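Next up, a chain.

===
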Amino acid sequence: MTSRSKEKVAAAFRKLFRSPEKLDNDGAGPSGSPARRGLLRRHRDGVSPAEAAASLPSSPGATSLVKKKGGAGAGEVRERAAAVRTRRLMKELKEIQRLQENRPDPIFTVELVNDNLFEWHVRLHQIDPESELAGDLRELHIPNILLHLIFPENFPFAPPFMRVIEPRIEKGFVMEGGAICMELLTPRGWASAYTVEAVVMQFAASVVKGQGRVARAPPRHSREFSRRRAEEAFRSLVKTHDKYGWVTPALSDG
């Protein structure tokens, strides 16, 4: 056998017994490039809560798109998003309960609706004592303003839905069904750093700023006072403000 023939045989053996790692590095193996192998490992091992939050849809339309196209991956993201929501609400609830226990006269108190962590009743006990609304509450012997909060699946990356249950309030940025006109509660005005305490305190300031009063007479047009009616009013509000914008008060006005 000539030297040239020997070189050909040796090259054939080297190619035949080439290591899998070498194949992968050259892109000929089943895993492809190093970047692709890293992507496969990441997909296999899952994503961190921060990555789940970053990939969370920010609107109902985006959520429906994920449901259609995502398959099992979308299910995993939803599970991790649910875990984020649960941890956040547990943390906030514990902090609020701690403040309630340490203060003899808390500004507001919280209780779960039917032991549901994602649905709260908030009782606002204190507002500006010099306001007309506070005077109405004292005169009518109403101890607090009852608010209803519902936290969506993608909370805290989307705002809770909040409405006034009782008493019925006129003006004060309170609308039909107890819906609340407050930019903070809209998708465009919300930020994940906002807490339940911040939302409640903002409402306490807004209802006074808007000259809210306790309704003493039945409404002229009797309409259903319910969550459904409040959600309809709020959706209409969001569309209107998305079109025409919001008026931001001066800092001196609170």
Residues 19-69, 248-254 have pLDDT under 50 and may be disordered. Residues 72-102 form the longest helix (31 residues).
